[in-house]
Design a protein that fits this description.
The protein has about 400 residues and is an alpha/beta fold. About 45% of the residues lie in helices and about 15% in strands. It has two domains: about 200 residues, Rossmann fold; about 190 residues, 3-Layer(aba) Sandwich (Rossmann fold), CATH 3.40.50. The strands form two sheets. The protein has a seven-stranded parallel β-sheet with strand order 3-2-1-4-5-6-7, sandwiched between helices.
Amino acid sequence: MRILVHDYGGYAFAVQLSRVLARRGHTVCHAYCASLQTTPPGVLTRQADDAPGLTIKGLELAEPLDKYAFVKRWRQEREHGRLIAREVERFGPDVVLSGNAPLDAQKQLMAACRTHGARFVFWLQDLLGIATHRLLRKKMPVLGEAVGRYYLLLERALLRRSDAVVLITEDFRPIMREYGVDEASTHVIENWAPLDDVPARPQANAWAEAHNLAGKTCLLYSGTMGMKHNPDLVLQLALRFRDDDAVRVVVVSQGMGADWLRQKKAEHRLENLILLGFQPLDALPDVLATASVLMAVLEPDAGVFSVPSKVLTYLCAERAVLLAVPAENLAARIVGRIDAGRIVPPTDPAAFTDAAARLLADPVARRAMGQNARAYAEKTFDINRIADAFEKVL
């Protein structure tokens, strides 16, 4: 089978799936947006052990994608749509699996599939129509409502016209029923993190030494920090522990939230707040191992329509997790069920900093939580079982 896997963000778990499908004898083209600079990428070059049937294609825009300029971003997302549509014509897939894609690009890709006789599988990572509608009507009450409503209807139409839909959580099923998506063509395959990319490592490591973090107790955030992540929670942690020289609050990120924290660091003279850009993928195990506690935040409005993939990566690292996310979010339910950390409401900064203090004061509990996290990852993130599920859908 000729399979085009389109993962707009270039995530590590998606390219892992493409590699395994190619090893199973399929001819696979893995395409992603090479101009997106606010997402930590996976291994997006050919490796020595890759199957001959695998091609990895980075689609370059005329300029780096600007996520925070709405009109320019809209044009660039349509430009990406034209590029991925041409890839369908060039590669000639039997089936396309497309996730993380802006809805305008997804529309162009689906149209190309119809023109060239390829089946289309919508890999629903986030409910972008709902997210866009909520965001725009807050920023521009009248125009934003109209534009947001357009994207709600577009997402609904694309899902209904797909040959199959892969959901990352059962939480999306009621919305699919509301949208009138064919239940027989809807499948749930939860996201995962590549275990081999994040082996458990010691806290004392070369990366920690290089960044003057050896011997420090680190509360660490790694991954995108955009509009649905509240950087003020991280700022409150830095303020809470500013007089404790043993504690560092470390943010490994890029984007609007990280830029805001940079301003606040200077304003409050927070020497304990360490801000770093995305690190090379081969450094990721040591980055996460440097943490005593790994953190993730998600705004209340994003509770159902987004599942933070960084949390799944955290589970591999054998560290306790501190989440400020809605209780109904899948990541919160997983962490709570396996006792891998603490979950607080995203609207309660005091609860967030108090939970961090309690975790730092109890190394025995932290160690047990980290072990629970790694055990869950080893049991659940079996890429061959996951590939079996995708292969059946495709």
